[in-house]
């Protein structure tokens, strides 16, 4: 099942059409523990699916963003970091969420894109076994872990959370797919482009810590809650690696996960920053 949210409400993707659901116009928050309800809900109309839709946030209020660091060998290599022996993660606030089509503020001199495979937790838990991890994932979505690298450079946990937690710095969507949509969960592809130039290429099999292992390891340190959004790490090709420029006003970043509709955002200047 593939779910999207427009100004008209929640919809299931039906080929080239969006089947609008006969439920209240709200985020997925209320249905994280009951995806079967969304699968069986009647529809009221079908509208064309296009990138020009007025998308809305998939979640009204995520619980928090859990941000995995250094989870691709190519990214470690490009920034000169050692490959981690244990999972590294930080927390960003729920207020960082936005949606595909939203403009994102350039709040500092080194704002960077990080295309990622995003996970939305549906069933919480503590000390989750790797073999059970996929049962706790409501869905998968494109995600941009936007980062102010000059603020992140302080390298404290607080600085990382601040650098990645500005309003609008965690766009997700426009589509969320339930795990059954992916036949090979170790080959979920990820592509990032800036102004049409491809910058990042990766897939879930490239990860140092795989998706199920990430869920298990996080749950050993903190209890996962419905509405937690996990940013699973970014592959090589970010501006921080030195081969590409940081984002400037007018840049368009496009992130595609599998064959889901792309997450597209433009970046804009902020006055008096």
Detailed description of the structure:
- By secondary structure, this protein is mainly beta.
- The protein folds into two domains: 2-48, no CATH class; 64-269, Fumarylacetoacetase-like, C-terminal domain (Fumarylacetoacetate hydrolase, domain 2), CATH 3.90.850.
- Helices cover 13% and strands 35% of the residues.
- It contains five helices and 19 strands.
- The strands form five sheets. Strands 4-3-2-1-14 form a five-stranded antiparallel β-sheet, with no helix packed on it.
- A hairpin with a 2-residue loop joins β15 (189-194) and β16.
Descriptive key words:
single chain; 273 residues; mainly beta; Fumarylacetoacetate hydrolase, domain 2; 2 domains; five-stranded antiparallel beta sheet; five-stranded mixed beta sheet; 5 helices; 13% helix; 35% strand; globular
């Amino acid at each position: 099942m593939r779910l999207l949210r427009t100004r008209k409400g929640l919809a299931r993707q039906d080929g080239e059409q969006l089947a609008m659901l006969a439920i209240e116009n709200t985020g997925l928050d209320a249905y994280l523990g009951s995806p079967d309800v969304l699968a069986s809900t009647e529809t009221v109309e079908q509208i064309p699916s296009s990138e020009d839709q007025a998308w809305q946030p998939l979640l009204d209020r995520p619980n928090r963003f859990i941000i995995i660091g250094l989870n691709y060998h190519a990214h470690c290599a490009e920034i000169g970091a050692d490959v981690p022996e244990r999972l590294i993660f930080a927390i960003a606030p729920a207020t960082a969420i936005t949606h595909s089509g939203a403009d994102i503020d350039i709040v500092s001199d080194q704002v960077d894109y990080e295309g990622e495979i995003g996970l939305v937790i549906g069933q919480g838990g503590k000390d989750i076994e790797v073999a059970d991890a996929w049962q706790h994932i409501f869905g998968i979505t494109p995600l941009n872990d936007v980062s102010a690298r000059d603020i992140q450079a302080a390298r404290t946990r607080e600085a990382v959370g601040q650098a990645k937690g500005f309003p609008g710095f965690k766009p997700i969507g426009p589509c969320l797919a339930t795990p059954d949509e992916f036949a090979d969960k170790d080959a979920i592809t990820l592509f990032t482009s800036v102004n049409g130039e491809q910058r990042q290429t990766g897939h879930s099999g490239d990860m140092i810590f795989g998706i199920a292992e990430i869920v298990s390891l996080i749950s050993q340190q903190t209890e996962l809650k419905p509405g937690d959004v996990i940013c699973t790490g970014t592959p090589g090709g970010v501006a921080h690696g030195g081969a590409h420029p940081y984002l400037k006003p007018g840049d368009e970043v496009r992130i595609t996960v599998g064959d889901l509709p792309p997450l597209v955002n433009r970046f804009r200047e902020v006055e008096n920053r």
